[in-house]
Design a protein that fits this description.
This protein is α+β, with helices and mostly antiparallel strands. It contains seven helices and five strands. The protein has a domain of 83 residues: Cytochrome b5-like heme/steroid binding domain (Flavocytochrome B2, Chain A, domain 1), CATH 3.10.120.10. The chain has a five-stranded mixed beta sheet. The site of protoporphyrin IX containing FE (HEM) has 21 residues, from helix 3, helix 4 and helix 5. InterPro entries: Cyt_B5-like_heme/steroid-bd (IPR001199), Cyt_B5-like_heme/steroid_sf (IPR036400), Cyt_B5_heme-BS (IPR018506), Cytochrome_b5 (IPR050668).
Length: 128
């Protein structure tokens, strides 16, 4: 039976999904969750051990820390440490929202759209 439980943890059915709102509720020093690359981590027990200090983690508590985590350029060791605190994935609805928001906020997307129109107008008006 123990073996069964082990394999269960590795299958999709065992994965827990959290919304951004649920993660947001865990924003205290005695109850701290973080989102990094769409995965949710309970880092409560790690706060005092963090080589970069407790303060920076508290600033990100309950929020998406992907950018700040990457900005620091954390080592492979640091990335592997993350696994210990993994508790689940970001809920699909929260994922879709960010994907759509970032597409429309994406400068390249609008620029591509603009250039396409410009080249069409140029062709129609015989301008070079
Ligand atoms: C659970 C998530 C995190 C883990 C497991 C983690 C782990 C570590 C580790 C092991 C180091 C030592 C250097 C290295 O190995 O790269 C470190 C350094 C550092 N971390 Fe994190 N970290 C996490 C999240 C964050 C976040 C979200 C921030 C920023 C808001 C941050 C800021 C820093 C800074 C500034 C240092 C540099 C300390 C120094 O060089 O003196 N960390 N972290």
């Amino acid at each position: 039976q123990e073996n069964n439980q082990d394999t269960d943890e590795n299958t999709d059915s065992g994965v827990k999904y959290y919304t951004r709102e649920e993660v947001q509720a865990h924003n205290m020093s005695k109850d701290t969750w973080l989102i990094i690359h769409d995965k949710v981590y309970d880092i409560t027990s790690f706060m005092e051990e963090h080589p970069g200090g407790e303060e920076v983690l508290l600033e990100q508590a309950g929020a998406d820390a992907t950018e700040s985590f990457e900005d620091v350029g954390h080592s492979t060791d640091a990335r592997e440490m993350l696994q210990q605190y993994y508790i689940g994935e970001l809920h699909m609805a929260s994922l879709r929202l960010t994907a759509r928001t970032s597409l429309y906020a994406n400068w390249k997307y609008w620029n591509g759209f603009l250039m396409l129109n410009l080249s069409y107008v140029r062709r129609k008006t015989c301008l070079k």
